[in-house]
Amino acid sequence: MGLKLSDIDFLIIGAGKSATTWLQTQLQSDPEVYMPDPELHYFSRHYERGEEWYLSQFCDSGAAKTVGEKSNSYLDHHEGAARIHRDLPQVKLIAQLRNPVERAYSHYCMMYNRGEVGPDIETHLDPRKGEMRRLWGIGNYASHLQKYIDLFGREKLLVLFFEGVAGNPEEQMSRVRQHLGLPPRELSTEPDRKVKDKRSRHVPHTMRERLAWMKPIVRPFRGAAAFEAVRASIAREIRYPALSEDLRERLHDYFAPSIEELEEISGQSLSHWHGSLTPAE
Questions:
Q1: Mapping DSSP to helix (H, G, I), strand (E, B) and coil, where does residue 63 land?
Q2: Left, alpha or beta for 80 (phi > 0: left; psi -120 to 50: alpha)?
């Protein structure tokens, strides 16, 4: 008998650039838990594909007792919460959040690396200009979470913070497992597959586009010494545009009301979010 919508136990709904992949990796290390690797984005970007497609993504769940998925786009999608409540009213929710200023800058750096935005950081990150709301609008966490609370109730939602991953990862996962009704388990020591070395060198985006036609030809040679030597000769270390103190203050002023509301929702002080930025991810 195939999986039904009522068999989906939990969703990690975001936020992006907040170490949610670490949560996924830890849960996937437990044989009692099944999560598909890719972010499905079903309730946000691919809802038209239908229930059959969605459930087919869990076809390898086997005998796992707890089944869920992670799609960071669910947090702020305008229809995501309503769709999830309509189809998965039983589901438990997990949100892991990061200082919204840090998160926005990290998101910008990711897009800059991909060549999707230019070096004029203020054009993309200044809330007063409103040109790239996708970068900073996600950080209005309180309003996004309130949609879920109104539909599911506060008890269905576990709110975690990025700092817990580095500060006390055992406690962080203990809270996750307790929320999902899972027994205690030691942390996995397997490295996060998606963590990238920020100091690594990359082929410039424009050059990658020009050389895209060669991918099928050179793919069999990837990893070979000659191939890697040629790649190294054209790769360079990425230098991300800096976030100025002035722009950081503008972003913080914009997020301040939402941060205060989030403190009420989570019952936790977020005074540490007034501190300095961590390196971009």
A1: coil
A2: alpha
- The pLDDT tens digits of the residues spanning 171-213 come to 999 999 999 999 999 999 875 554 443 444 455 555 555 656 6
Please check whether residue 251 is in contact with residue 101, taking contact to mean a CB–CB distance below 8 angstroms.
yes
Strands (E), the chain: 10-14, 33-34, 66-70, 92-97, 157-161, 201-202, 236-237
Measured CA to CA, the distance from residue 166 to residue 150 in angstroms comes to 31
Pick 56 or 194 by higher pLDDT.
Answer: 56
Query: How many CA atoms does the CB half-sphere of 73 hold within 13 Å?
Result: 13
Q: What 3-state DSSP class applies to 67?
A: strand
CB 139 within 8 A of CB 258: yes
d(CA 199, CA 202): 9
**Residue 100: CB atoms within 10 Å:** 25
Rounded CA gap, 242 and 48, in Å? 40
Residue 89: count of CB within 10 angstroms of its CB: 12
Q: Give the percent of the chain with pLDDT over 90.
A: 70
Amino acid at 236: R
Cα 94 versus chain centre, distance: 12
Contacts of 259 (CB under 8 A, 6+ apart): 100, 142, 270, 273
What is residue 92's three-state secondary structure? strand
Rounded Cα gap, residues 165 and 97, in angstroms: 11
Is residue 265 within 8 A of residue 159, CB to CB? The reply is: yes
- Alpha-carbon span 242 to 251, nearest angstrom: 14
Phi and psi at 153, nearest 5°, equal 90, 155
